[in-house]
Write a structure and sequence with these properties.
The complex is a heterodimer.
Chain A lengths: L3 E14 L2 E14 L3 E5 L6 H9 L7 E10 L2 E2 L5 H7 L4 E4 L13 H13 L3 H14 L5 H4 L9 H13 L5 E5 L7 H18 L2 E6 L2 H7 L2 E6 L2 E7 H6 L4 H8 L39 H5 L4 E5 L2 E4 L5
Helix pairs in contact in A: 3-4, 3-6, 4-6
Chain B lengths: L1 H9 L7 H10 L1 H18 L1 H4 L37 H37 L1 H16 L2 H12 L3 H28 L2 H8 L4 H37 L11 H7 L9 H28 L7
The chains are: A alpha/beta, B mainly alpha.
């Protein structure tokens, strides 16, 4: 087994609003290994993106605050270091790709300048060494004729190309960990497939660990080695991707996988989960999924379920799973 | 932009590009005319000692109140006539360009710089910084500028730098307002988020990402300010709190002619025309640049 790059332990992040505390992330733990892609899935507003922003310490201030836990990267707890030291980590050891490639690039600079900015900022290379680094980053993301593309402005590139440039910026300083926040959502299906293949290739070449945030189970199946399913600020089930699809244990995971539309089954109606996720402002005392769960018991209402190990790297938080 | 590119593609040789070139001139006439006028005036200011036929402050009581050459009693020795001290109006107007234009350029440079720095800081950093800076801006905008100018003129004495100080001390506020709004817009954009994710410091983001993206409106307002500042300088000179005599400025020349307006209107008219030309040129140029930079009007 390869080395663990990032370990998140019991991370808790809240937003303090005028109406009260919103527990966006409430005790999330997971790890990612070298050359591994860890998927973080769940419906909107379940805390996926807030988890990612907490790792980078880029929560919107002053409302968002990390109130507990550890984020350990290469033996260093990122929550303990100074702001300045944190900036040196961002883009160098940990990179992130944001959702929308159309707007993630500054319209007034050429793409060469934008990649070079990151290289200069983190690697302290002499000027004549910057250009080759930029070109190799573009080449890594398979951007054709990188020497020519350097001088292009973002508006001259297609959406898919821009997304690759964003990837090239993220990879330009050889990070250990890459966080991708729904990078494929804004792309159409064919480009999406290409992009995923490209990511896998980049990972093979660089051994980068990837946290892949998505709500698309199709993408999860293709891209991720292991998956964490989030519900209302908690990870309810973690498992290797194949296990998760073939033998999901948590009722929420089961329901989610059942609600993915399938071409090989001719159901009349799409399956959907009854009810709404709970408000993160006043959470029920027991299991968060309890009100929507079809197999719930009294204990579910009263006490939070413990995390149980049910197989190799397979963890579930549910009273019904023994 | 596109039409220029298209022209050079279809007409690779400059000889064959007769009609399109002319078309380009007329299409951008509101750029060329004001630009030419302003360039000529700036050149006039720079080369004033070479162009002016007389010393602008030389008094010659025997030749006082001579009308322009085209009027009865006028002479071609004094093309635009003389004032009540016999000083040559043309020479004074030429030298006056120096003061009027340099005041406006210096004031614009100062106010735009201060306003941009404060505006970007307020807009990007937000929070208490923003609240504080914007309240200061509000106060500055509410304060009567002319009153402060008079106060300064009285307390530190009138002069070239007093005029500049008086116009700069409050003049940055509108820039700060405008740039703050623009910085707010840019702050929310994804490429700023991406820069933060890549580990850029707030200083770096403000300089490299926010500043270039607020340049367009800044340039427009700076151009439009040329006219405004010349008018303000003229108003100060007219009230006697500007650059003190005998140094000529357009504003003080207009004020000089006030008492003689019924018999020697030319003393006020010619500097007045000069003021009008600069103000109009600045406004037209500003409008033109704004239209060109407006992304909704620009084709990419």
């Amino acid at each position: 087994m390869s080395e663990i790059v990032l370990r998140v332990e019991n991370l808790r992040t809240s937003f303090f609003t005028r109406r009260g505390e919103v527990k966006a992330v409430d005790g999330v733990s997971f790890y990612v290994r070298e050359s591994e892609t860890f998927g973080l899935v769940g419906e909107s507003a379940c805390g996926k993106s807030v988890t990612a922003l907490s790792i980078l310490r880029l929560l919107p201030e002053p409302a968002g605050r990390i109130i507990g836990g550890k984020v350990i990267l290469e033996g260093i707890n990122l929550l303990d270091i100074s702001k300045k030291a944190m900036r040196a980590f961002r883009g160098k050891k940990v990179s992130m790709i944001l959702q929308d490639p159309m707007t993630s690039l500054n319209p007034v600079y050429t793409i060469g300048d934008q990649i070079a900015e990151s290289v200069r900022l983190h690697q302290g290379l002499p000027d004549n060494m910057v250009q080759p680094e930029v070109i190799s980053a573009l080449r890594l993301l398979r951007i054709p004729a990188p020497e020519m593309r350097l001088r292009d402005y973002p508006f001259q590139l297609s959406g898919g190309m821009r997304q690759r440039v964003v990837g090239a910026i993220a990879m330009s300083c050889h990070p250990r960990l890459l966080i991708a926040d729904e990078p494929t959502t804004a792309l159409d299906a064919t480009i999406q497939a290409q992009y995923i293949a490209l990511f896998q290739e980049v990972q093979k070449k660089t051994q980068v660990a990837i946290i892949f945030i998505t709500h698309d189970f199709g993408v999860v199946g293709k891209m991720c080695h292991r998956v964490g399913v989030m519900y209302a600020g908690k990870i309810v089930e973690t498992a290797p991707t194949r296990v998760l699809f073939q033998a999901p244990r948590h009722p929420y995971t089961i329901a989610l996988i059942n609600s993915v539309p399938r071409l090989d089954r001719k159901d009349e109606r799409l399956y959907s989960i009854e009810g709404q996720p709970p408000s993160l402002m006043n959470l029920p005392p027991g299991c968060r999924f309890f009100p929507r769960c079809s197999v719930s018991e009294t204990v579910c209402r009263e006490q939070e379920p413990p995390e149980v190990k049910v197989g190799d790297e397979h963890l579930v938080s549910c009273w019904k799973v023994k | 932009m596109l039409s220029v590119v298209a022209d050079t593609v279809t007409n690779p040789s400059p000889k064959t590009s007769g009609p399109p070139r002319k078309g380009r001139f007329f299409k951008n006439i509101w750029f060329f005319i004001p630009a030419i006028v302003l360039t000529l005036l700036v050149l006039t200011a720079i080369f004033a000692p070479l162009l002016a036929p007389y010393d602008p402050i030389k008094v010659s009581m025997r030749e006082k109140l001579l009308p322009p050459f085209f009027m009865e009693g006028g002479t071609t020795k004094h093309l635009l006539g003389t004032d009540k001290l016999g000083r040559d109006i043309l020479s004074r107007a030429i030298f006056g360009a120096r003061i009027s234009l340099s005041v406006s350029l210096i004031v614009i440079a100062i106010t735009a710089s201060i306003g941009t720095v404060l505006g970007i800081s307020a807009g990007y950093l937000g929070g208490r910084t923003e609240a504080f800076l914007m309240r200061v801006t509000d106060v500055s905008m509410a304060f009567p500028g002319l009153l402060l100018a008079m106060l300064l003129s009285v307390s530190i004495g009138p002069g070239f730098w007093t005029v500049i100080l008086a116009l700069s001390i409050l003049g940055w506020a509108p820039y700060a307002r405008l740039i703050r709004g623009e910085a707010l817009r840019v702050r929310g954009s994804d490429f700023v988020a991406q820069a933060r994710v890549n580990g850029a410091s707030p200083m770096r983001i403000m300089l490299k990402h926010v500043f270039p993206n607020v340049l367009n409106p800044l340039i427009v307002v700076m151009t439009l300010a040329v006219g405004f500042i010349i008018l303000a300088e003229a108003a100060m000179s007219y009230l006697g709190i500007g650059v003190p005599p005998p140094e000529p400025s357009w504003g003080s020349m207009v004020a000089d002619g006030r008492s003689e307006i019924d018999r020697a209107w030319w003393i006020s008219l010619f500097p007045g025309i000069a003021i009008g030309l600069v103000v109009l040129s600045g406004n037209f140029l500003g409008d033109w640049i704004r239209d060109k930079l407006d992304p909704r009007l620009r084709q990419v």
